[in-house]
Amino acid sequence: MAGNTNRYSSYTTASVGSGSDGKNGEKAEKKDLWSSMLDGVASAKRLPEKNIILLGGTVDSQREFFESLSNNELRRTLDRNASRMPPVANSFALGYTYYDVLDADQEDTLARISLYTLTNPSPSFASLLKPLLTPQTIPNTLIVILLDWSQPWKWMRQLREWILLLRTVLISLSHECMAAMEEVMLSWRDRGRGGGTNLDGTTALPVADDGVALPPGPGEWEDALGIPLCVVAQNAEKMEYLEKTQSWKEEEFDVVLQFMRTVLLRHGASLIYTTPSLPSQLPSLIHSSLGIHSLLKKQPLKHNVIDRDKIVVPPNWDSWGKIRVLREGFDVERVSNAWTADLDQPFPHPQSNGNTSNGEPNGESGEAVHDQEEEDDEEPQGSTVRLYELSVQDPTMDALQLAGRDTHSTELEVKSEDTQAFLGKQLKQLETFKKQHDETFGQDFGSSRNKPFKKIEEDEGALDPYTRPTEAKVLEHIGPVQFNMGGIQVDADDMVQRLKDRQAYGTSEPGSPTDEVGAEANAQMDTENLQAFFQGLMNRKSGTGK
Q1: pTM for this one?
Q2: What is the pLDDT of residue 379?
Q3: What kind and span of H or E run contains 53?
């Protein structure tokens, strides 16, 4: 029986199959390894993205704010950074620009910040801000409101307009965004209280033995927006101008600071004064608020409420007690509670100033006093805006009110009145004057002006019926009149009196026949007098001779 004597070894097949599978496995493992390494490198090089929503100010002031954050003395010396400065597009509606935050050695990039700018608190722009706030961007967003020391009397009104606009946007967000904002506010509220980490990244000192964070004090975090807020008061060098030209004193500057600190304390916001020509803690405050900290050099954020032009009030530092210490007599509780009435106002405000960010009033500037009074009347009783504007008054409004409500000294253009309306008013005034004139002098006065002058009665007390009362009043007003005639100073009143005397005694005009007869008679009378005088002298001599 012949059988199949061919044997097949299963080792070769198995060994070959197992070898190919091993190579594929090794390739797959190597591929996964490289992918993970590339992903790790990519994630390490990916810059943290932060957002700043910049509200208020003007186009130029927003550029100054951007330059103060993105530029410093070291960075300006680096050509590569100067050549890569992005443009600032903030001329229309919602503007945008960005910059990279460099480390202390100016080599490593810590984060990239995107700035979204808006200059006008118009309700029409609320739809532009809403897409910027998502559950992913809210934890990395900071809101900055710009104010200017050129018009500090408008700060409270401007601040209210911007916060009302923000509240309109925030209450319309989704539930996911609401949850993100609540989480952000909880972390901010506990930052620096009872241990943990301060805003600048340093370790906070424990204030309680059990390590429990202290609760907020009165007036703190009462109206949290859900997003961190920072208020920047630019051009602090103009405080000296207010002191010299408007007679501001330390009391006025302290009142402004107390109002601002009291209101911002309710929102958990920070406050800083800046001067373009002087270094400040503005970059440290803004970057720390966004969670950006240097890896090489720690820059602690220090509060400052002593130097009036370098004020820095970090979040979670202020309190009612510290505000009262600044100047006595300030009712911090009343101002804080009154801010709630301001936030309950409808938006937009019926008597809003329009573009409050740049200080331009809405409508004709000649009606500034009237509009301001209407706005004060529309403010709720006990409003913080009303209290602030009573304490910090606009000097231009004071000048206009003293000059009168119809004074338009600040106008560049004057609105002309209708011609027919103007003539109608003038006609009424002329008729009134004519009626008063007729009642005073009689209706026949006008017709008597053309009649010739008659001889005045010899009685000096008689009244000349043709004497013009108006001319007499004019002569009394301007006083005596003199004129020069042939080098001789002649008084007008004396000349008139002589003419009247000549008319009274019937003296004719020079050159007439009666005038010649009178001259001969006068000459004859003078000769007789001289003859009598000399005859008297001769008689005296003869008498003495005897």
Answers
A1: 0.64
A2: 73
A3: strand 49-56
Q: Around Cβ 380, how many Cβ atoms within 10 Å?
A: 13
- Average pLDDT for 328-339: 93
For residue 25, the model assigns a pLDDT of 58
| Alpha carbon 262 to chain centroid, angstroms | 21
DSSP per position, 220-281: SSTT--SS-EEEEEE-TTHHHHHHHHS---HHHHHHHHHHHHHHHHHHT-EEEE--TTS--S
Determine what percent of the chain is predicted with pLDDT higher than 70. 61
Joined tokens for residue 138: 């809210």
* Three state DSSP letters for 269-285: CEEEECCCCCCCCHHHH
404 has pLDDT over 50: no
Count of CB atoms within 10 A of residue 140's CB? 18
CB 155 within 8 A of CB 234: no
Nearest C-alpha neighbor of 118 from the set 194, 28, 58: 58
Decide: 358 and 58 in contact? Cβ < 8 Å: yes
Give CA torsion, residues 43, 48, 49, 50, to 10 deg.
160
Distance CA 318, CA 499 (A): 92
More confident residue, 456 or 222: 222
487 CB contacts (<8 Å, ≥6 apart)? none
Tokens for 510, please give them. 């020079």
d(Cα 351, Cα 344) in Å, to the nearest integer? 15
Query: Pick from 74, 70, 513: which is nearest to 296 by CA?
Result: 74
Burial of 42 (0-12, 13-18, 19+ CB in 10 A): exposed
How far apart, in whole angstroms, are the C-alpha atoms of residue 349 and residue 359? 16
Q: For residue 330, what is the DSSP state?
A: -
408 closest CA partner among 419, 399, 417 = 399
Give Cα 429 distance to the centre of its chain: 41
Could you read off the pLDDT of 18-52 as tens digits, one per residue? Answer: 444 555 656 566 567 777 777 666 655 678 899 99
| Rounded Cα distance, 406 and 398, in Å | 14
pLDDT recorded at residue 269:
95
